[in-house]
Task: structure prediction
Amino acid sequence: MKILQCIPSTLKMDKDGRMIIYTLLLAAISGPVVAKEWTANVVNELEALVSSCVVIPCSFTHPGGHMSSSTLRGLWHVSRHLDQRIYYDDKSRVLENYRGRTKLLGHLGQGNCTLEITEIKDHDNGPFCFRIELAPTSSGTLDKFSFVQNCAKLIMQPDPPKPEMNHPKTAIQGHPFTVTCTVAHTCPTHAPKLTWSRGTEDGITEVHRKTHSGIWEVQSILTFIAEEKDDHSVITCTSTFNGGRSSSETLTLFVKRTENYNHIIIPTVVGLGTALIFAVFCLFMVKKYK
Result:
C-alpha cells in the first residue's frame, strides 16, 4: 500500500502503468526465490567395464547454503523410479541386485554426491539419478529434490581397453631409452595396474591423472639403457583392471649400434702391415740375388 501511495496519480489511473508496476513488483519479490534453485552437475554418459567398477562424478547445490552432512540424506535411483533405489543409507530399501555394490563418495555437506558402483553387470545401464533430502523442519515438512534431468547413463564395455605405447623409433646402444604406456579408465578408486615384461629392475615411474570429467588415466614410464642384446627384443605392457580383466600391447625394440671405426681401422692396419712385410721381403730378396 505504501508503494502505491508513492505512484503519481496520473500513473494510478493508467491501466498500462499499473500493469508495469505490478510486473516489476512481482519480479522483485520472486527474483531471490528463483535465484535459489537446486542445481546438480552429473556426468551424463560414461563407459564402464563389465566386472570392474565405475565412479560417477556428481556435485550439487541447494538453497540452504552450507549444511552439515548429518542434516542431509542422499540417494540414487533408476531413472524416474524413486522406489528403485541403487544407493540409500537404509540398505534394506535398496534393490537387491545393487546391495553391497554402491557407495557414496565424499561428503554431502560439501555438495559431493559422487557414486561408486563395483562389480559392474552388463545390465547396469541406468540412467541413474541423484536425489537429496533435508532433515524435516520445525513445521514437519521435508525439503527434497530429485535431479531427474541430470542422470548418468552407463555404456557397457565387454572388453578392457588396450594400453597405448609411445616411444622413439629406435634405441641407441649405451643410451637411455624411454617408453610410455598409458590406459584410460573410469574408476579412480580402483585404478588399473600397469606392468612390464622387463621386470622391476628397470626404472619405472607411474602417474595418475584426470583427463576429462569422469575419465582418468594411469601412465607408466619405463627407462633403461639399451644394449646390443636388446635388438629385436619384445617389450610388453599389460594393464590389469579391477575385477581381473587385462589387456596388453607390445613393441619390437630396434637398437642402433654405437658408431665406431674399428671395422675400418683394424683391416687398414692389417693391410698396411702386410704390405710393409711384403715390401721388406722383396727388398731382401732383390739384394740377395743381386
Q: What stands out?
A: The longest helix spans residues 262-289. The radius of gyration is 37 Å. The chain is about 20% helix and 35% strand. The first strand starts at residue 39 and ends at 42.
